[in-house]
Amino acid sequence: MLNIRESTILNNIIEAFIDSGMPIGSRTLVKSFDIGLSSATIRNVMSDLEEYGYLIKTHHSSGRIPSSKAIELYVHNLINSNSENRHYINMDDFLEDEKNRFEHLIVKASKLLSSMTEYATLTFVSREPNPVIKELFLKELGDNQILFLLVLDNDQVYNKIIDYKMDKGDISIEIINNFLEENFKSKTIDYFIKNLNPLFFREFKLDFKNLTGYYEDIDFSEDDELKIEGIERLLMHPELSERVNQIAQIMEDDSSIKDLIFNDINNGINVFIGDEEGALEKLSVITSSYKLDDDRWASFGIIAPIRINYGNAISTIIKLDRDIAKYIARGDKNAGR
Question: Residues 6 or more apart from 59 whose CB is under 8 A from it?
Answer without folding.
Answer: none
